[in-house]
Each structure stands twice: as structure tokens, then as C-alpha cells.
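Reopening this one. Same input as before:
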Amino acid sequence: MESTVIESDGRCACEVGPSLAVLNDVHKAYEEKMDLINRTAGSQKLQKQVQLLQSWVGDLVAQNTLLARTVEELEIELTSRVLSERRKFSEMVSELRVEVTSLRRRLARKDSDLRGLLEVLRRLREFDYRALDSIHFNEVTQSDIFGPVTCFFQKDKSKNVICDEVSELKIKIDSLQRDNLNKEREIRKLSKEVQQYEQTINSLRNDISMSKYHTPDVSRKDAAVTVEICCSANKECGDIEPVKEGGARDEQVQYQERIQHMESSGQNVRALREVNVSLSEEVQALHRVCAALDEQCRVSALRAQFKDEIIREMRRQLKWAKAKLKESDQKSNTEATSSQSYGSVRRSNGRERDLPDLDMNPDWICQNRIYDGSGDVVSYGRD
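Same output, byte for byte:
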């Protein structure tokens, strides 16, 4: 125990407190009594030692009970502290959870505003469209994004005119493209009809050529017989020939009408093709105009940005010049005040100086100092 008491310099202060000192004193007192009994030899030595040990054991039991009670009290106090700390910790955790949920809501609103701003930037970059349709902001307004309405209209007046022209040209291009598609459909339809007419013409030409140039492969006798039969048939059926000639004439008229119709349809197709070519050329010209207007918009935006940068630089230089002028004015004022104070001090010092006393002895060798009006030494001279 003494070793623990001696080596307790770096430990807790409770180990070297007054209670431990009292216990050490009691222990030393019992040891001294035991040594005293051992030194004094007698018949009742053993009985005295037993009594001393019994009293020592009783004191130790009392100390142990006291220590046990102290330990129980410390355990109770420790459990109460642990419970209170646990309650505080649970309350702190609940507060932190509420704060985390509120921060998450704010972060979600910030993310929503950021996505909306990205969408606005995409519209500005791709379409030059500045409206906030179907975009919801939680903490951002239109004036925060585009500035005041008057300033916005003053800055973008020329851009709006160019954008209106571009939109009108785009509408014209769309209408021309629709007309071009309709014309192409009509051209395809007419080309199909022309092909059908060409097929019918070819079939009719083949039929006519077959009817004119077909000669049956028969012998001379059979040919003579057929001639006689034909003559007899012509004699018998003389009244049928005018009817056949009328049918052939009708077919020829129909054939000519079909040819005229095909020629007119071909002319229509050629006219439509020419119109289609002219429309395509006009569309290409409008595309070039749109590209030129886009380039003008880009150049005007660059010029506006350059002008804004020049204005900012001029304002910065103006502020710097004003600060420099103010600093130079302050410096000149301080120099004027310092020069005035220096002149007054110098004049006062000149007045206070006394001229030296001259020795009027005839044997005096003149090596006198010559002073100016202020009393300063100018040179040395002889009389």
C-alpha cells in the first residue's frame, strides 16, 4: 500500500486524498502497536496480539462496509448520470434529425432551382427563348435571373427584332416545306398515271402493229381459197364494213384524246418539277438568310458583351482615377500644411538666435564669423 501511495504522482487525486491518508495512519498505528507487543515479552503477549488483530479485523470490516456503500452510491449516481446523458443524447438526436430533414428539404429546393436554371440556360443557348414556361422555382424569381423588366427590354430590343424576323422566316420555311411535300406527292401521283398511260399506249401500239402486219403462214391454194371466201364474205357482208370503219374511227379518236391527256399531264409534271426546283432554291436561300441572321445575332451578342466589358473597365479606371486624385489632393494638402509649419518654426528659431559678441581689442586678429540675416554662419573673414 505504501508503494501505491508513493507512486501515485501521476494518478487521480482521489487516491492520495485525506481518506486514504487516514487509512494509512490507522494501518501504521496498528503496526506500531504490534511491534510494541512483540518487543514487550510477557505471558499475555499472544492474548494481546489476538485482541489487537480482532480490533484490526473489525476496523477492516467497517472500512469494507463503508467502501461497499460508497461503491453502491457511486453506481446509483453513475446509472442516473448515464440515463440523463442518454435522454440528452436522444433529444439531441431527435433535434438533429429534424434539422437534417429541414436541410434535405432546402437542398431539394436548391436542386430544383438549379435544374430550372439549367433548363433556362439550355433554352437561351439553343432557342434564344427567355420565358419561364413550365419551370417552377422555389427561391428564384424572373427578375433575379434576367434582371428588371425595363432593363431587359432596353438591352434586348434589337435582339427581339432579329428574333422576330428569324421566327417569321422559320414560319415561311415551314410553309414552303409543306407546299414542297404536297407538290412532291402530286408529282409522284402524276408520274404513276404517266406510267399507266405509257403502258396502255404501248399495249395499243402492239395491238395495232399486230393487226396491220400479221400474215398467216398458209400455202397459195389456201390463200386463193381464202381470197374467194373473203370476196364472197365481202359481197354478203357489205353492210357490216361501215360499222367496223366507224368503230375504228372512234378508237382512233379515243387514242388521240388519251395521247393529248398524257401530253398535258406531262406538261403539268414538268411545271410541277420546275416549281419544286424553284421552291427548293427559295428554301435554300431562306436557310442562308437564317444562317446570316444567326451570325448577326451572335456578332451582336459578342459586341454587346465587349461593350459591357469596356464599360466595366472604364468604370474601374474612373474609380481608380478618382481615388488617385483624392489621394494626390490629400497629399498636397498635407505637404502645404507641413511646409507652412516648417517655415514658421524656422522663422521663430532665427529670431531667437543671438549675434556673437565682438572683441573690440585693437590687437584682435579678425577671424570672425559672418552671419546672414537669419543668424546662420556664412563664412570666415579678416578685419
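So the earlier flakiness isn't reproducible anymore. For the record, The mean pLDDT is 72.
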